[in-house]
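hey so i finally got around to running the thing on that chain from the lab meeting. sorry it took forever, my laptop kept dying and i had to restart like 3 times. anyway pasting the input first so we r on the same page abt which one it is
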Amino acid sequence: MSNEETQITNHSSIQELVDKARLAQIEFELFNQEQVDAIVRDIGKFVFDNAESLARMAVEETEMGSYDDKVLKNKGKARVIWNNLKDKKSRGGIGEDTDTNLMFVAKPMGVVAAVTPVTNPIVTPMCNGMFALKTGNAVIFASHPKAQKCAEYLTLEFMKIVKSHNGPDNLIQVVTNGSVEKTQQLMQSADVVVATGGGAMVKSAYSSGKPSFGVGAGNVPVIIDRNIDLQEAVEKIVDGASFDHGIICSHEQFVIAPEENFDKTIELFTNTGKVWFTDNQEQIQKLREVVFQDGYLNKGVVGKSAFDVGKMAGIDVPESSRLILLPADGSGTEDVLAKEKLCPVIAIVPYSTFEEAVTMAKANLLVEGAGHSAALHSNNDENIQKAGVELPISRLVVNQPSSTSAGGSLTNGFAPTTTLGCGSWGGNSISENLDYKHLMNVSRIGKVIPDKKVPTDDEIWA
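ok and heres what got predicted. didnt touch it at all, straight out
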């Protein structure tokens, strides 16, 4: 392979990138399912096999998150996404419906603009790249400036894989010397946009004039129901909320626990040895002011450890602590701690009735996070149904760590992804997990249904 084939040039304009991508996509569109899947598999396997070095690269460049958790994330996401993709048809004829006598043919969208965040600089490009190529598209990454090195490295390595399978040059590219203006130009020039990042970027994607898939803010409330294994629920919440220093948008933010077990619940949290708790009002206020400045999330705490967040507040939190737990003054607008905290700080409040718990969870979501996710630990099907019906969410994660399950796992039915749609509540076009199927067009071939009985007007209007 020549250096020219893998080199990333810093002077290419956005239009040049798109023009090259279009030529590559035309050639790639001729690849059959087996050829496409071989490339997609090897991209996921590269991240899986190099999870440690990629995790180190991400932590060093972004200065966010936990190395150990990023290793687990790299392996876990690569594993679950490929496992979901490997047996799916996405090229040519993909199926038929004998009842309606329809045949379905998959076709690419063209050039995918994939805007990737600083919070997930490895698995999001991997995920969106795998989805784009699975459906016969070319992809151009536009990364957050603080994750540029990760994006450029992945692009080089992914293109080595493409070329090893005799794929076209420039099938995967990256915007260099990135800027808001370049990203906006890319979104306007591509055929479809996947925007995983902050609200302003997602809004810009939807204003690009191109089909777009974005995500809304997360702010996951987690309700602990009665008559469950309380210790098991607490351990799952700790695992979820502390994962990657709380940087994942689907991590548990606000615990709502039965009032009669409130003190016991706090005790179980602290007994894990991973949670630092305080009910000292002065310390709580210091942490409020560090996590939220003038009511807005302080970017300086995002993805930092519990020890580092405590240090910023002038509080001695043990280095062994993975999570800070604070009692809140209430839900919704009653306490700023009810908002999204992309760091290992979570709040807890008691409830008297399950209806009150759902009301508090809803109040939080209507302040921030509507359309995203909620979590529930319950064995009561009626209560599970009630929460699922009443909360403005796209996914209810039941009896699982939310941060590592809402985006799909080997043990649930959510589509494995790194991009979680939030529906109209969150200003998004989808209320499900982004999947490969969102990046392909489907032609439907319709024939007359044999022996179809045509109803009379009387039957139609009966």
